[in-house]
């Protein structure tokens, strides 16, 4: 039987879901699923049982998201720091992840799992990838930009999360999606993850809706600013080129436009070539990893 699809929303939940759907809805939600061990302690069950119920809660949450039309979810399942926990806990979490995620993957395609992940590791890796691109002659140092770094992150195929939810009352990000959440609605909720309910999710979406126009404005301003900065850099490069050629930098507007157009077309070509090479490099790394662990 399907794990995510089993069980529908109650009549009352459906009614409220329809009301909330009349407002702006998030397309992508990220969760820091925290509080499993405190839950186990509170309910006087084994720690592993707390983690197991945490994984079950994920399936339930994905069903609510599906019902609300939220088609992308990213979860922080295990951080690099979590390897410092006891061997038995780490082994138990690995077993659960193997069982539960393979079951989730069979039926659901909109879940991104961050496992053995930290954001700073992801960002420094993206920087290393760009340095590799320059070293290989695929990129020019001037191609390096925030927008290129964004494309080198593991999340490059997803829009940035609209909401980041952390449960269990902790008010920190613990190195999760630091780059991607600069314009997300951050929601910290006191509930322990295994006790998360539809109404907690509902409340988080309401918070997002109440802040939607401010968030949207901040995103738009950021995008505009990035475009403006790139154009300014390109203008300066063209001026330099023209001066080097002994031409008047501000003289011929048509010539300047043609140069600007060429400059950005060539950059786009290099960036696309680099991103293709990067994808191949990553696929090759994954294939080698698969062979090594087989
Ligand atoms: C989150 O719950 C799950 C993982 C980090 C793997 P915790 O295990 O951190 O539980 P608490 O926060 O100690 O209660
Ligand atoms: C963050 O939870 C990581 C996950 C939920 C996987 P932790 O409980 O490990 O984080 P800290 O140590 O409290 O910051
Ligand atoms: Mg915790």
Descriptive report:
With 294 residues, the protein is of the alpha/beta class. It has a domain at 11-117 and 154-226: Undecaprenyl pyrophosphate synthetase, CATH 3.40.1180.10. The protein is built from eight helices and five strands, in the order H-E-H-H-E-H-E-H-H-E-E-H-H. The protein has helices at residues 11-20, 36-43, 47-67, 87-107, 119-135, 146-152, 198-244, 253-293; strands spanning 28-32, 72-79, 111-117, 163-166, 185-188. It has a five-stranded parallel beta sheet with strand order 3-2-1-4-5, sandwiched between helices. Strand 2, helix 4 and strand 3 (111-117) form a beta-alpha-beta unit. Helix 3 packs parallel to helix 4, helix 5 (119-135) crosses helix 6 and helix 7 (198-244) crosses helix 8. It starts with 10 loop residues before the first helix and ends with a helix. The model has no long low-confidence stretch (mean pLDDT 94). The structure holds 3-methylbut-3-enyl trihydrogen diphosphate (IPE) (2 copies) and magnesium ion (MG). One 3-methylbut-3-enyl trihydrogen diphosphate (IPE) is lined by residues 32-34, 76-79, 81-82, 170, 172, 174. This is ditrans,polycis-polyprenyl diphosphate synthase [(2E,6E)-farnesyldiphosphate specific]. The active dehydrodolichyl diphosphate synthase complex is a heterotetramer composed of a dimer of heterodimer of DHDDS and NUS1. Interacts with NPC2. It comes from Aotus nancymaae. InterPro entries: UPP_synth-like, UPP_synth-like_CS, UPP_synth-like_sf. One of its GO terms (biological process) is polyprenol biosynthetic process.
């Amino acid at each position: 039987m399907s794990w995510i699809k089993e069980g529908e929303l109650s009549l009352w939940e459906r009614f409220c879901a329809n009301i909330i759907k009349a407002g702006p809805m998030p397309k992508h939600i990220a969760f820091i699923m925290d509080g499993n061990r405190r839950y186990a302690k509170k309910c006087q069950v084994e720690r592993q049982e707390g983690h197991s119920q945490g994984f079950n809660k994920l399936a339930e949450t994905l069903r609510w998201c599906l019902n609300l039309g939220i088609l992308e979810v990213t979860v922080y399942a295990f951080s690099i720091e979590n390897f410092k926990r006891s061997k038995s806990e780490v082994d138990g979490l690995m077993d659960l992840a193997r069982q539960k995620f393979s079951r989730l993957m069979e039926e659901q395609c909109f879940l991104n799992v961050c496992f053995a992940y930290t954001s700073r590791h992801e960002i420094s890796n993206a920087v290393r990838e760009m340095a590799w691109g320059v070293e290989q002659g695929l990129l020019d140092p001037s191609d390096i930009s925030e927008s290129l770094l964004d494309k080198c992150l593991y999340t490059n195929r997803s829009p940035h999360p609209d909401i980041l939810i952390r449960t269990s009352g902790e008010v920190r990000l613990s190195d999760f999606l630091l780059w991607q959440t600069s314009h997300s609605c951050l929601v910290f909720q006191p509930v322990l993850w295994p006790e998360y309910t539809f109404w907690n999710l509902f409340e988080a979406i309401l918070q997002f809706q109440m802040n939607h126009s401010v968030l949207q404005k901040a995103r738009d301003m950021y995008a505009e600013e990035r475009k403006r900065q790139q154009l300014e850099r390109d203008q300066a490069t063209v001026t330099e080129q023209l001066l080097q050629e002994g031409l008047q930098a501000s003289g011929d507007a048509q010539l300047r436009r043609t140069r600007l157009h060429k400059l950005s077309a060539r950059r786009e070509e290099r960036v696309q070539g680099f991103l293709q090479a990067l994808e191949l490099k990553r696929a090759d790394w994954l294939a080698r990893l698969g062979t090594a662990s087989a």
